[in-house]
Amino acid sequence: MTAESADHVAEFLRDKDRDRYFATLILPTDIRPAVQALYAFNADVASVRERVSEPAPGEIRLQWWTDALKGEGHGIVRQNPLTDALLDALKQFDLPTVPLLRLITARRFDLYQDPMPDVATFEGYAGETVSVLYQLAAMILNNGQAVEMGDAAGHLGVAHALIGHLRAFGYNAASGRIFLPLSILTANGVREEEIFAGTISEGLLSAHQQFSDLAREHLRTAEAAIAQLPRSLRPAFASAALLRSQLKRVEDGAEHAFTTPGDLADWQKLAMLAWWNWRNR
C-alpha cells in the first residue's frame, strides 16, 4: 500500500466514520493501514444511500465495488486510492473477498424503502454488514490466519448495528425508512405512519426498551466472548467500549427517541479506548 493511499484512507475514515477511525489508533502501526482500508471501504459502501436520490445510481456504485473485488476493470480501479488500499490489504493478509461481496449485497437493502421485517432478518443483515468487519480485523491482527472467535464478532456486530440504528431512528424515520425490526414495533401497536410522523407513544417507548434490552444482551454476550480471546486479538473489538456508553445514552434519552442522543467528546472516546486497550493487553 502506497503512503499516499494510506494517508487518503486514514483521512477518509476519520471524516466518514470517526468512531472506527479512533478504534484503529490503538492497533499496531504495521497493521493499522490494512484495517483502516477495510473500514474505509465499509464507510463508502454504507454511505451510498445518502449520496443518491434513487436506487439505480446506488446499484451502479455497489456494482462498481463488486467488480473491483472480482478483479474486473483492474487498472482503472487502482486509480481510486480507497480501492487501491483495500486490494493491497486483501493481498497482504490473504483475506477472502466473499465476505465483502456479501456485505455489498446486504447493503442493497439500504437503497430501498422496505422496512426491516423481523429480528432474524436484522441479525442476518448485521452479521453481513458489521460482524464481518470484526472478523476480518481480527484476521488481520492474526496475520491473515483464520480466527476462532466464538460469539465475539457475531454478537458485537448485532449490538453495534442495533445501537447505531437506535441512535439514527429519527433520522431514518424522517427519510421514510425503518431499519429496526418492524415485528417488535407492530407487536407493541406502533404503526408505520406514526413512526414517519415522529409520534412518541407508549407502544413506541416499550418497543424502544425491547430494542435496548436486545442490544445490551448481545453486547454482554460479546464482551464475555472477547474476554476469552487471546489478548493479541482483542484490540479488534475495542469498539465495545464506545458502544456501552452510547447504549446508555440511548436508554437515558428514550423519551426523545426521534432525536439523536448526545455522544462523548472525541477526547473522551480516545481515553476510553486507551483504557480499554490497557486493560485487555
Describe the overall structure.
By secondary structure, this protein is an all-alpha fold. The chain has 2 domains: 1-111, no CATH class; 113-259, Farnesyl Diphosphate Synthase. 68% of the residues lie in helices and 0% in strands. The protein contains 16 helices and no strands. It has helices at residues 3-16, 18-24, 32-46, 48-51, 55-69, 74-77, 81-92, 98-107, 119-141, 152-167, 169-174, 182-187, 192-196, 202-226, 240-252, 266-280. Helix 9 packs across helix 10 and helix 14 (202-226) runs antiparallel to helix 15 (240-252). The radius of gyration is 19 Å and the shape is globular. The mean pLDDT is 91.
Task: Explain briefly what this protein structure is.
It is built from 16 helices and no strands. With 281 residues, it is mainly α. It folds into two domains: 1-111, no CATH class; 113-259, Farnesyl Diphosphate Synthase (Orthogonal Bundle).
